[in-house]
Specification:
By secondary structure, the chain is mainly beta. It is built from five helices and 39 strands. The strands form eight sheets. Strands 1, 2, 9, 10, 11, 12, 13, 14, 15, 16 and 17 form an eleven-stranded mixed β-sheet that branches. A five-stranded antiparallel β-sheet has the order 3-8-7-6-5, with no helix packed on it. Strands 4-32-31-30 form a four-stranded antiparallel β-sheet, with no helix packed on it. Helix 2 crosses helix 5 (about 640-650). The longest helix has 13 residues, at about 620-635. The model is unreliable at about 1-80 and about 105-115 (pLDDT under 50).
Length: about 650
């Protein structure tokens, strides 16, 4: 059958993207797995006859454990038709108007590793250096997506906030339910959250966080899916639910979920079918992909992972699991399929997918004889071949459920629930796993629902548990590499950063001093160290040092304000700055810039601040364009340009 495509484009106003790039090489990549070259044929019968899982695979000893002995369980490359690629819809947004949730648990002080939050369920978390943003579902008069952030690895937290919704629609979230958030973050700290809303079931809503700890930058955005007009047919997508999001390293976004797809031309509706959204430019343009004749219905519990390839997993109600994927990240092609049907003695539930480079792991529950264990399917060739295995330390006579996987702190980490508790196990090679460690303090307190725990991208984990008969969200930063009794220094930049004037102004409102706050969160005093500020230009990678200061050491727990003079308030230095700051893009601050201090955690020593010419010269923004025109129009050295600037600004520089 000839496949027909409808092309429509979705446009978004702004944002950036990139996913945290995990660079690691492990024994897992060297495992002896299937080397078969699978020909993707139209006939499922022919496909089943040529897919082979070798008995000499490292995973073959687990085949019986998870019930994989029927080749018909592997279904790759089914015959597909009527695929739609819909592009061209405009994405809109409003500045986020926030309200506070009435606090129930005090947030003034916490244990370092375990933090009580408001009553809530379905938590998710992103981390960015020492910053944390948690989103979760809070139940009041209506269900709301509630947000709290921390600037100090979770020691203190903001008020609990929720969005009132877009002003354009008269703040609909005040009278509707928002549930089931899923959040991802870019390496520059820009996070995006998707969620379900019964305000309008034909809108894809998103919460966007350009700075996860600056609520003034937050916004709510949406894509209208009520009427999608293509070249041949018109569609409506509604009842979106079970949404999940991931952000790749090369400016791409993947959102997947389940929805009802109505062909307005024929009047036919597909219920609870897979729907995929993607952007290859950081969210400026989106595309929707779905199939009008997909055999899959009643999908739920979506998870996504996006690196070289794009992978989406679902649970098929009570029938098994499904993975839809684009092996090379090319969304103009049809998706590939890998599904695992329930068997007489084995059922498969709660899948979660994780990818890196050409490797993919689908971790799931394998339930046999009413006992649930944690199993997985692994591919090192972007889904062409799959091999099964189990996590031995999560296979016992007790039920291990709800697995979640990430690569974090130089190792794989898997969380799961057992006997009402949250456990974590880790491995550096995906072969040998540590003894599971219980995370929650109150025994048997884990709240029983899917998605009970989620990892932060750099560190930390959130979950929901029962405390005083109420489900509450909790967080642990999990950074326990160093022995608790070991003495260490840990210098960090807090969130208090400002640009100000030295007071001796040669130009009105000039900002020539960068003020930052530095803290030693370690257990011992630090020796002296350097703090250096660098300037970065647009479309340039090189960092140019412009200011340095020596700090004569910090006692444990001490905070100090460090003022870096970027240029001095003399005529000569101001004019040089007016010339040298043209095309400025950002300021990079490095604490212990010569790496003279041995620290427990050096990931919080650097910070990048987006700036513009007006950051330093708010009254002379026009000078930047003038200098650019001078430089472009004449072949002058920097001294000649500075002399021209002095002559042109003789009144200002007096």
């Amino acid at each position: 059958m000839v496949e027909r495509f409808v092309l429509i484009r979705i446009v978004k106003d702004n944002s950036y993207t990139r996913k945290y790039l995990y660079k690691f090489y492990h024994k897992i990549i060297a495992m002896e797995l299937s080397k078969s070259s699978l020909a993707i044929l139209i006939s499922v019968v022919v496909i089943a006859s040529i897919i082979i899982i070798p008995t000499n695979s490292i995973f073959s000893k687990h085949d019986v454990d998870i019930g994989i002995d029927d080749l018909n369980d592997f279904k790759l490359g089914k015959d597909k038709s009527h695929f739609r690629i819909l592009k061209g819809l405009e994405k809109k947004y409003d500045e986020m108007v926030l309200d506070k949730v009435e606090m129930v648990h005090s947030l003034s002080s916490f244990d370092t590793d375990l933090i009580s939050q408001l009553p809530g369920i379905n938590p998710d978390v992103v981390t960015y250096r020492d910053k944390i943003l948690i989103v979760y579902e809070h139940v009041g008069e209506y269900k709301n997506i509630t947000m709290q952030y921390s600037r100090d690895h979770g020691r203190t937290w903001s008020d609990a906030l929720f969005s009132r919704g877009p002003e354009l629609f008269n703040y609909p979230f005040e009278r509707s339910n928002q549930t089931d958030p899923d959040i991802a973050i870019k390496p520059n700290g820009y996070a995006i959250c998707v969620f379900e809303s019964d305000d309008n079931n034909s809108r894809l809503y998103m919460l966007e966080f350009p700075d996860i700890t600056d609520s003034s930058s937050w916004k709510v955005s949406w894509i209208d899916l009520y009427y999608l007009e293509g070249k041949l047919y018109s569609y409506r997508i509604s009842n979106l639910h079970d949404l999940a999001i991931d952000i790749a390293d090369n400016n791409r976004i993947l959102i997947a979920g389940v929805g009802d797809i109505t062909n307005l031309s024929s009047g036919i509706t597909l219920h609870q079918a897979p729907v995929i959204f993607y952007s290859n430019d950081g969210g400026d343009k989106f595309t929707i992909i779905f199939s009008e004749d997909t055999p899959y219905r009643n999908l739920q519990k979506t998870s996504v992972s996006f690196d070289v390839g794009a992978f989406v997993t679902y649970q098929i109600a009570n029938e098994g699991i499904l993975c839809l994927y684009f092996p090379d990240g090319d969304f103009d092609k049809d998706w590939e399929e890998f599904d695992l049907e329930d068997r007489d003695l084995t059922r498969y539930r709660n899948p979660s997918v994780y990818t890196w480079e050409s490797n993919v792991v689908i971790i799931l529950e394998s339930i046999s004889y009413n006992n649930s264990d944690i199993a997985y399917f692994y591919s090192q060739d972007l889904g062409s071949n799959w091999s099964p295995g189990t996590i031995d330390v999560a296979c016992s006579s007790e039920n291990e459920k709800y697995p979640c996987i990430i690569y974090q702190q130089d190792k794989f980490m898997i969380s799961f629930e057992k006997d009402g508790n949250l456990y974590i196990t880790n491995s550096t090679d995906f072969e040998t796993w540590s003894d599971p460690e219980k995370v929650n303090e109150m025994d048997g307190s884990i709240y029983p629902y899917f998605g009970f725990s989620e990892f932060g991208n750099e560190y930390g984990i959130v979950w929901s548990e029962i405390e005083e008969d109420i489900p509450v969200v909790k967080f642990s930063d999990m950074r326990k590499e160093a022995d608790e009794n070991e003495d260490y220094v840990d210098l960090r930049i807090t969130g208090n950063i400002t640009f100000k004037s030295s007071g001796e102004r040669i130009v009105k409102n000039m900002k020539n001093v960068l003020s930052i706050e530095i803290e030693n969160t370690g257990s011992i005093d630090s020796d002296s160290f350097l703090v250096t500020a660098y300037i970065k230009y647009k479309n340039k990678e090189r960092l140019n040092p412009i200011a340095v200061k020596n700090v004569g050491g910090l006692k444990k727990g001490e905070r100090v304000e460090v003022n870096l003079t970027l240029f001095y308030p003399s005529l000569r230095d101001v004019v040089k700055a007016l010339v040298s700051f043209v095309n400025v893009d950002s300021i990079v601050i490095k604490v212990d810039s010569d790496d003279s201090i041995a620290e427990k955690d050096e990931s919080n020593n650097n910070i990048t601040i987006d700036v513009s010419y007006g950051t330093f010269f708010p009254k002379l923004v026009w000078v930047e364009d003038m200098i650019l025109r001078i430089v472009e129009g004449r072949n002058l050295n920097s001294e000649s340009v500075e002399e021209l600037v002095v002559n042109m600004l003789s009144d200002e520089l007096s």
